[in-house]
């Protein structure tokens, strides 16, 4: 089938209430027609995700914002103009017509225009909003290739569009613009600083508050291997400790620390933070493919996209969001 027939088939599948996995620049999404509650329910059962967790609605044009959201602040239009299509999700007050199954009964809705040609073509052909979480089983590592999607969901998906490896590699930044004070809910490759630059004011991260942040579960993005976080100073010690317990151990790091134990496996990751984001989930999957029981990870620096990497790594280690912030201050 040629590309345009594939897109037509995928759009028809969505219209018929089916599930289509599609590439975005961040990770692969598991899509359904956002106006069809039965189709949306299938997303939750395919992922094994609790049904009260809200989904992101992917749209094709900025003008479609008003179909889904109301009371849209100027800041949302400014961020959309600057960063869409791109890895930014905005939480806005929802229109009354948006399905409860998409919003998890919240009075807000998450929206974004993804920046991937296949995703944009699919949105154009489908002609509506596509509700899509990351196309992984609940709590597991997000997929960054079509093969990963198949590994996660197999035949639970009706169509998988293959757009190669995702260029960003970690999920979009999420910013909540539904209240008077904008808040960062999930760090991503578009940083707080980049958004503050556009808006002319800085805003707070959600950590430390008790707002319900679905997906803010302490354990998330986890491979089967236990993830142990390390610094260059203590990596050797942590590797030896795990080896001493008889575990099959790997190290995810850009270079080898001094005295690297010969019975540990080195998973090499590039040094630049953008490259680390591109490779992180792929490397976590690789750790499972080669049967590691423990993966010691040297934490990246906490700047730019490094903040998002630290967030994902803390969750992969089961340490949660509030710990992320404390830990970020140490790294
Ligand atoms: O990069 C991405 O954002 C990918 C691609 C496919 O677009 N999608 C993704 O979706 O990461 P998901 O469902 O895995 O993560 C979206 C997060 C979830 O933690 C969800 O609970 C949260 O956004 N979310 C969605 N709607 C929300 C809302 N109204 N208020 C607060 N959080 C919301
Ligand atoms: Mg997810």
Q: What descriptive keywords fit this protein?
A:
331 residues; binds magnesium ion; single chain; 12 helices; alpha/beta; binds threonylcarbamoyladenylate; disordered C terminus
Short description:
This protein has 331 residues and is of the alpha/beta class. Helix content is 35%, strand content 18%.
Write a structural description.
The chain has 331 residues and is of the alpha/beta class. The chain contains twelve helices and 15 strands. Strands 1, 2, 3, 4, 5, 6, 7, 8, 9, 10 and 11 form an eleven-stranded mixed sheet that branches. Helix 1 crosses helix 6. The protein is globular. The C terminus is likely disordered. Threonylcarbamoyladenylate (TXA) binds next to strand 5 and strand 6.
Main sheet attributes: strand count, strand direction, barrel closure: 11 strands, mixed
**Looking at the chains present, what oligomeric state does this protein adopt?**
single chain
Kindly provide the radius of gyration, computed on alpha-carbon positions and rounded to a whole number of angstroms: 20 Å
How many helical stretches?
Answer: 12
Report how far the terminal alpha carbons are from each other. 49 Å
